[in-house]
# Entry
Amino acid sequence: MNKSIKIFDTTLRDGSQSVGINFTVNDKIKIARKLDEFGVHYVEGGWPGSNPKDVAFFEEMKSIKLENAKMTAFSSTRMKNIKVEDDKNIARMIETGVPVVTIFGKSWDLHVRDALKTTEEENLDMIYSTMEYLKKYFDEVIYDAEHFFDGYRANPEYTLKTLAAAEKGGADWLVLCDTNGGSMVDFVTSTVDTVRSQFTKPIGIHAHNDSELAVANSLAAVKHGAAMVQGTINGIGERCGNANLCSVIPNLSIKGDYTTVPPENLKQLYYISHLVTEISNQTHPDGLPFVGKKAFSHKGGIHVSAVRKNSATYEHITPESVGNERVITISELSGRSNIIEKAEQMGIDLRSDSEKAGKILKRVKELEAKGYHYEGAEASFELLTNALMGTQKRYFELHGYRIIIWKNADGESWAEATIKAAVPEEVAAEHGYESHIEHTSADGSGPVEALDKALRKVLEKFYPELKKAHLVDYKVRILNAEEGTNSTTRVMIITADDENRWSTVGVSDNIIDASWQALVESLIYKLVKDEEKK
# Structure
């Protein structure tokens, strides 16, 4: 029977420390939900004692039930020379209401002396007292031994004492951290062996990638007895990043005798990887193993000939097993499977209609070539699929819109949007209106807000349920910056109502038009979903 390895995802905490990545609260909620659906065991949401955003995130998560993952908060051991019950960071951890906390402590005597400026004895008590106190409030307390491998190299006796203090205090896990990312594989394995021989609590591994060994060190640690791997989606994180779970998970599950996420969920890996990239407003590295667009690409000659006969000749696994696809640069061999899988997740069955699946695939590829991206915009993909299948209802028709930007002598600026649109005549009659054409305007602090308000003035009298939908996030991405002011812009909008939130996308060389596309689809999606409930 395969051994179960716990997957501890710290994308929202350690991953968010990556330069250039700044998750909003709504970003974090969306990623947390997807990670939960994917089947990771722990989702580390952030450090509630460090910033208001993480406090707000944990407050929002109190009303969101996770089905598979345990929501986890992160903090440090108590501050030196105070009682643990007087530590404000510890108090904030308790206020989060999460079932699991991760506490890091100093394992390297260098840090005890130079960073904490305290004694080795005080540091040991900081670890012990924090573990003991928090065990009264949480189902699990995970101890992250920061700089463990560097500490063990410098002073193994003291470093092991820090683990003993955590274990004595009641820690449920002892996680060995290669915080500086400089340890070699043989040193990691021999050290894990030593720890395993002296402690009864289960061991975890938290590796950074400064030597390009985070994944290798994580896999090696598991081979030598670690039962938890901490890492991030796509390996994002501070400096060179963390262990990439998009490589760790398939290596353990497909190539090793281990169970990580549910086997049937492995095919979601590609989607999860690209979703996190899109929400991060980054460019996805095409060459990433398993989940990169080039991971299973083949270009001409001997390789293409061999793959056509037997894909195993140049592929170490089947791309479909992780949700990816094979790409032959001169003619694609696959692609329908990805479209069918995406559609199935949204309740649309295309398995029995290969022709329609091929039609959708062709259109998706045409649009993605123009800059559209559907991994992070599920609502837009569903509407596109409905349209190509001929099932999309027409809720209104745009006659035109106009934007005016105002600026007064005091430097204040605002926007005015004018819209003319028509709803079906039967919809107008149903609500008691003689005219089905509306011509109206609205002001906003900027053109997008003005457009949103004007469009709602047109539609809400005919579709009052739209009053419950509101924009919660707006992201702009320049796709070809070298074109300057003529660059193509991708706009992603997240909208929410009382029950759900959804993402839509628009692309154009005109940022207003891209925003308009995403706005329109966000409201149409709301109407579609409400109609399905009736």
User: Anything to note?
Assistant: Confidence is low (pLDDT under 50) at residues 329-334.
